[in-house]
Structure formats: C-alpha cells, structure tokens
Specification:
The protein is an alpha+beta fold and 849 residues long. The chain is 34% helix and 19% strand. It is built from 27 helices and 33 strands. The protein has a 4-stranded parallel sheet, covered by helices on one side. Helix 1 packs across helix 24 (731-740), helix 18 crosses helix 19 and helix 21 (664-683) runs parallel beside helix 23. The longest helix is centred in the last third of the chain and has 20 residues, at 664-683.
C-alpha cells in the first residue's frame, strides 16, 4: 500500500467511535484485509467457526471472534499471508421456527438477519476477508452439498434404510425431536402421546471411517476433544455370532459380545422391541403382552431406556433360541434396554457376568450359572455379577482355562465351526441426515416406478429449494405438498417420477465450508483445486468445545471422503484446534434472557468503543477458561486505552530542568523485554497476560514521560513498539496512533517488532528474602547472581540478621533470581527479642507474611 498523508482529525481527545468508524471505512475501501492467492509469503489459513444468523451479534460471538482476529492479525504481522474468512451457517430449524412464529418466509428472515450481523461484525474491526463470504442457504453453495451427496451415493457411503422416528398417531406424521415435549413425550401440537415408528431415512456411512477417525496423528488438537471423540466412536473388540431360533428353520439373529469367554453362561436372549423378528417369532399366547410392551417401549426416549436408574423389565415372546456352543435352548425376551439402533439390536443374556443381565435374571427367576470363577470361588451362587477375569468353569471343553485364553480359544472355535467371527464394533452410528423440514438442502434423489432410486444428474444441480413452498409445520417435509417440486421426470426413462422431499441435516453445510472460502465463486467444483493447493488445509481453527463430537467429527469424516475422491492430498481438515471458554453474565451464570444477565455488545461499542470491548474480553482471564463479564472491569480497560492515547498524543515536553529519569538502557531493556513477553503470550493465545504486560509497560512509560529520557531515541522506539504490539489487540487506536507518530500507513502492514535477547534479558532482579517463610527483605541483585552469593547477601542483610541472630540456621533455600528462604532451627539457641517481631495490636507483623 502507498503511504498516505495523515487523515484530518477533529480533536486530539480520544473519541473511539469516530476513530473506529473512520478507519473501518478506509480499511474496506483499500481492501486492506483481502488475502491474495499465490502470494510469495508463507500462507496461514486462520478460521473461526462461522455464526448462525440469529439476528444479533451477542457477546458470545465477540468472545469467540475478537481473540481469533487478534491472533490472525499477529500472524499477519509476523510475515504470513493470512486468510481470515467469514460466512453464515444459514439453514436450519431455528430459522424455520422463527419464520413460522413471525409469519415471514425463512429466506427473508435469514437474509435480514445476515445483513444486520454484517454491520455488527464490521463494528468489531476484525480483518475479515469479506470477498470470500459464503451463505449456506444460497443455491451456489448448497449445490455442492448435493454434489458431494451424489459422490457418496456412488461409493455406497450414502444409503437409505428404515430407522426409528417419533410418530404422532393422531396426526399420522413424523415429528422432529424438538416437537416432542415434556416428560410425557407428547406431540406439541395436539398433545397425543408420541410413539416410535420405523421410516425410510437417508444416512451417510461415517462408520466406514471409524477406525481412521480414532487416529489423531499429526494433529495439534486439545486432549479433551480427542478423548470425547474416542469415547463417542467407542471401539470394542469382540465376536459376532448368529443364534438360531428353535422351531423356525433358517431363522436366526446376530449378537455381538466383547466376552465370548462367557457364552456358556447364556440363559436367555433379548431382542429390542422394534427388532423385525419379534412379530415373526412371538407365539399366539404371548402376542397381547408383547404388543403392549412394544407400545410402552415406543413411548420412551432412548435416554430413558438406557438409564441406569431404571429397573430392567421385559416380556417373554414364547420363543426359544439355541445356544450354538452347547445346543441348550434359552428363552427369548424383548426388553427396552436393548435398542435396535445400537449394535445388532439383540444380546445374549449372561447374568452371572453382566450387571444388567443379573438384575433381569433375578427379576424373572432365570438361572445364573457361573462360567468365570473369581479367585477363591467356593462354588456357591454369586451375590452379584462378576465382571473380572478368572478361571473358566461350566464351559465344556474350555473348563480350567484362564478366561483371557478362553476368550481366544472360543473365538477360534466359533470361526472354525462357522458360528461366528472376530469383529470390531463401534458405538458410533452412521450419520442420519434426513430432515422432514423445509429450510435445508434438498436431497438430490428421484424415485421412479420403473427405474427405482435414481440420482439427479450433475448437470441438473442444484435442485433448488422452492421459495413458494408452504413451510408451516405438518410433521412431514413441506416439500411433499409442493406439487411442482415433488413431481418430476425420471432422468433415465423420462417417465413420471417423484423427488425426495426430505432435506439434509445442516451439519452437512458446516462439514466442508472451509473449502468453499478458498474460491466462493468457483463454478466447476466445490473449490478451485489450484487455489486449494495454495491455501489448504486450515492451519488454525478456533471454536467451542460443544462441537467436539458433532461438527468436528463430521468435518474430519468429510475430509477423509474428499481425500478418497482425489479432491485433496491430505486427510485432516485442520492442523491445529483451540477451544475457547464461555463468557458468563455479571452474576457468574450462563447468559440468558430469563436470568436478565445478557450483555449487549452494541451498547458498549457505542459508548466505549470496539477496542475497549475487544481488549476487555481478552483480559478477563485465560481464553480457554472463559469468565464472567464485569462492568467495572471494562471501565478499567477503557482507562488503560486513555493512558495509551495520552502517552502518544500529549507532548512529553521534557525541559532542561526535567529529571533525568531511567537511563536509555533501562528503557530499551523494558521495551525489548515486553516485546518478548507479548510475542510469547500471543503465540500461545495467552491474551490476558499479553495485555497485562502491556499495562505494566505503559505504567513504566508514564514514569519516563516528562523526564529527559523521553526526548531520546529509546523513548521513540518504545512508543513505536507499544503501538505495534497493540495493533492485533486494539486495531483502531493502534492505526490512529501509528499515524500520529508519523509512520507509514498501515500499522497492520508493518512487521511485528523483533526483540534483542540481550536487551530483553534483565540485568537486575528483586530477590525476596524470607525467614521461615515470612518476607524480611528485598534485595536488588544481578540477574545472574550465583546461588552461593545470593545466600551470602541474604544472611548479611541487617533486616534478616535481627531475626536470625541467636538461632541455628537449619537450611537456606535459594530459588535463583527470585527467592531466598532462611529456615531456622528453633529447638536450639535463644528466643529472639520480643521487640524483634512485635507489632501494634491489629497490625501485620513487619514485612508482611
């Protein structure tokens, strides 16, 4: 950028709003923050999670985004070509519900909110590259959702199957989870008790990547996120085997067990009430009881069914299964603690070695034979399930084996005899993306009576969401009732056909949005591969921990699919991840309208300025911890910026009679030491301590101002360095002060100040001297003072001597450069004079404590 003359100002008073509006307009006019493609500088793709257009930018947005912006600016000043894009996660249920509530179209509501939030985001002064903005409800974006879906469909990663949904039997319709209300689980519209029902739904086969998703090699991600994902994926090693049903030739069901060593202890089997075999095997005399239990189970949520506090119950189907290892018949029950969507929807009941099975067997009087003997077992029935390892008993040819060896031997026998096989199961389920709602990406599938399920051809994308659809809730997709959308022609045979009317889960939008930022106007694919080779993958991602097992897992899956499609040469979307904490209300509680503790950032921006809000949010504590808002705290930060302003704008005017002040060497030392501290803090996202270091530096410079030292080169270097260090944190005041220092535009195009390690190194330090842990003196000593010399000086101090004389010194503990603690042996020698430590009543002992 060319240098410009100083912009005219109306006053030398610090007026944050006037300054901020003026500089924001100039930055935008100059395209200051556009990240050029193929720049010779090393690239740095910095991404913070994009917002949902709820209508207002709340303080939580600021807490997530302002520190991210500071980190991106810092990286830019360090010489990187930084891309810092922004967009809007614009589809989803909240917009649809708000539109219904306000009787306004979701598109109209969403776009009005986006326009409002654009203005608010600009008021933050962040270095967003607005030329790369994306809006996920735009057909030019969601066209590529559909394109990705079709590529996954071709590879067998997108498929349709029966899945349980919530169903209102009065309205005969599917309900979204949000439409089922209360502990009674009733329809929010008519109050009818909701039941479970199986419907055809679309899934993405994320389980195909389960094993790879457990590998975090090369990722600098928080351990907490890794642990949450590992737990969510839930890898288990075991054996899958089939159990035949007695009296039903060729009929069997599959179970998975992590304990094949206990298979001889199976005394019953359990199917999920929704299991497709239940109706087939239930005997006529048990039909009524089974149907009643199935209805009761359908009324409960999965969480309720899996609750450990719930008493285990079930109903006998009248049918028996055959234990394939010993031929023993065992009764088949249905029970709601077995879910069709988890595992195989069936389990073997081994009551002696599983707590749930033990409770179930006790309730229904079923046998509980021990097959893994605990150490010292006396052959008597167990008072509770034994879950550990032991010796196999009552297990036919495997008796006497250690259970760990028996695990492998039984697995071998099952594989040898064709009964089962070793397998790895995951708790992770395939991703159900079908939504029976309007405001989302249409699924690009056509159903033809002659050709069956037919994908929409690429050349017919996007399948555009019609704006004239009736979006009021019916429980089914509103697109089902839009004749012009639903009725179409089969792309294969040309006959009459129907479109899929479900829309996609909005997590699809956010699973790949980082790639579209690279080239948002590219038409030949989801992103330009040439620009992708320059920018990708994301170098640094920031956002909330609440997305650990949804968005962050889905985006990893999506990138792995993209790698297998040959779109990218890497398999992880973001190299580094940082999770910020949560900003709380002034009462220390989570902000909510009902508590009345919501902070509106616009009010503070209007009165104190965006720089103050930014700096305060970064100052309240470690970014990863979050913390409560404080109106008093933000006023303190505002006063700090006024002090900074005064240092630069108001003349120092050191006359010939001014005091000498600290020497130039001391000023340069403090300048370079501060640069070192702030650099190290910003590299680690320690914004609070970086600002604290700058506050200390400003306090020091205020002591220098007015002295003869303030007329020298060291003072000028200190002011330039101060403004440069403030630039990432408080960009507007830094730009204004940089210009007032007569420096070239823009401060945000300057290099980050370098420090001289020798100058940054402290020449002297304050050595705290304690006697028995109580401070008795402070000594100014060379920073590299040897420990022996520190010990000698401490013991020679007159203030220390009066507490030591008359006692034996038991030890002298030296912490180099910081502390000397003299430990006395009070078991010998005279007691110190009463006057030595005497204090007036109510005062603290001399030297503090």
């Amino acid at each position: 950028m060319p240098q410009t003359a100083r912009m005219p100002t109306m006053t030398d008073r610090y007026d944050p709003r006037a300054i901020e509006m003026r500089w924001q307009a100039k930055w935008e006019q100059d395209r200051l923050y556009h990240a050029p493609d193929f720049d010779p500088r090393p690239k740095w793709y910095f991404l913070t999670m994009y917002p949902y257009p709820s209508g207002d930018l709340h303080i939580g947005h600021w807490y997530a985004m302002a520190p991210s912006d500071a980190a991106a600016r810092f990286k830019r000043m360090q010489g990187y070509n930084v891309m810092f894009p922004i967009g809007f996660d614009a589809f989803g249920l909240p917009a649809e519900n708000a539109a219904i509530q306000h009787n306004i179209h979701p598109y109209t509501w969403t776009m009005a909110n986006i326009e409002r939030m654009r203005r608010q985001l600009r008021s933050m002064g962040a270095m967003w590259d607005w030329e790369r903005e994306i809006v996920t409800c735009d057909p030019s974006y969601y066209k590529w959702n559909q394109w990705f879906f079709l590529r996954m469909y071709e590879r067998g990663l997108a498929y349709r199957k029966l899945a349980p949904v919530d169903w209102c039997p009065r309205d005969n319709t599917v309900l979204a989870r949000e439409q089922v209300v209360g502990e009674e689980r009733v329809c929010e519209r008519c109050g009818t008790p909701v039941v479970k029902k199986n419907l055809e739904q679309w899934f993405l086969r994320i389980t195909a990547y389960a094993e790879e998703l457990l590998d975090f090699s090369g990722l600098e991600w928080p351990e907490r996120v890794r642990t949450l994902q590992e737990h969510w994926i839930g890898r288990s090693r075991g054996v899958e085997f089939r159990i035949p049903v007695q009296g039903h030739p060729g009929v069997s069901f599959e179970v998975f067990t992590t304990r094949p060593d206990t298979v001889y202890g199976m005394t019953f089997a359990v199917l999920a009430p929704e299991h497709p075999l239940v109706d087939r095997i239930t005997t006529p005399d048990r039909r009524a009881a089974v149907e009643a239990y199935k209805f009761k189970a359908a009324r409960a949520s999965d969480i309720e069914r899996l609750s450990t506090e719930k008493e285990r119950d079930g109903v006998f189907t009248g049918a028996y299964a055959i234990n394939p290892m010993n031929g023993a018949p065992v009764p088949i029950y249905i029970a709601d603690y077995v879910l069709l969507g988890y595992g195989t929807g069936a389990i073997m009941g081994v009551p002696a070695h599983d707590e749930r099975d033990f409770d179930f067997a006790r309730r229904y009087g079923l046998p509980i034979p021990v097959v893994i003997a605990p150490p010292g077992w006396d052959g008597q029935p167990l008072p509770q399930a034994y879950l550990g390892e032991g010796t196999m008993v009552n297990s036919g040819p495997f008796d006497g084996l250690p259970s760990a060896e028996g695990w492998e031997r039984i697995a071998d026998a099952m594989e040898r005899e064709g009964i089962g096989r070793r397998a790895v199961h995951y708790r992770l389920h395939d991703w159900l993306i079908s939504r029976q709602r309007y405001w989302g990406t249409p699924i690009p599938i056509i159903y033809c009576p002659a050709c069956g399920t037919v994908p929409v051809p690429d050349e017919d994308l996007p399948v555009v969401l019609p704006h004239d659809a009736e979006f009021l809730p019916t429980g089914e997709s509103p697109l089902r009732y839009h004749e012009a959308f639903r009725r179409t022609r089969c792309p294969r045979c040309g006959g009459e056909a129907e479109r899929e009317t479900d829309t996609m889960d909005t997590f699809v939008d956010s699973s790949w949005y980082q790639y579209r930022y690279v080239s948002p106007d590219y038409q030949a694919g989801p992103f330009d591969p040439e620009r992708g080779r320059y920018w990708l993958p994301v170098d640094q991602y920031t956002g909330g921990i609440e997305h650990a097992v949804m968005h962050l897992l889905y985006t990893r899956f999506w990138t792995k699919v993209m790698a297998d499609l040959g779109l990218v040469p890497f398999r992880e979307p973001m190299r580094r991840l940082f999770n910020q904490g949560v900003i709380l209300g002034e009462d220390g509680e989570k902000m909510s309208k009902s508590r009345g503790n919501v902070v509106n950032p616009d009010e503070f921006v209007a009165t104190l300025g965006a720089d103050t809000v930014r700096a305060y949010l970064m100052f309240i504590g470690p970014w990863e911890n979050g913390g409560p808002w404080s109106s008093r705290g933000i006023e303190g930060v505002h006063r700090f910026l006024h002090r900074v302003w005064g240092l630069v704008v108001e003349p120092a005017a050191p006359g010939p009679d001014a005091p000498a002040g600290p020497g130039e060497r001391e000023v340069r030392h403090r300048t370079h030491a501060t640069i070192k501290r702030v650099t190290e803090d910003l590299e680690q996202f320690r914004f609070n301590t970086a600002i604290a270091a700058l506050m200390e530096f400003v306090n020091f410079l205020q002591d220098v101002r007015g002295t003869r030292t303030a007329a020298g080169a060291a003072w000028a270097e200190a002011l330039r360095s101060l403004v440069l260090m403030l630039a990432p944190l408080t960009p507007h005041i830094a730009e204004e002060l940089w210009e007032r220092l007569g420096q070239p535009y823009s401060v945000h195009q300057q290099a980050w100040p370098a420090y001289d390690p020798e100058l940054a190194r402290a020449e002297t330090v304050t050595l705290v001297v304690q006697v028995d842990g109580r401070v008795r003196d402070r000594l100014r000593v060379p920073a590299d003072l040897p420990a022996d010399e520190a010990r000698r000086l401490a013991l020679a101090s007159p203030r220390v001597r009066k507490f030591v004389d008359g006692h034996e010194v038991a030890d002298v503990i030296v912490v180099p450069g910081r502390l000397v603690n003299v430990v006395l042996d009070r078991s010998r020698g005279e007691a110190p004079s009463p006057a030595a430590g005497r204090t007036r009543k109510g005062s603290r002992p001399e030297g503090g404590g």
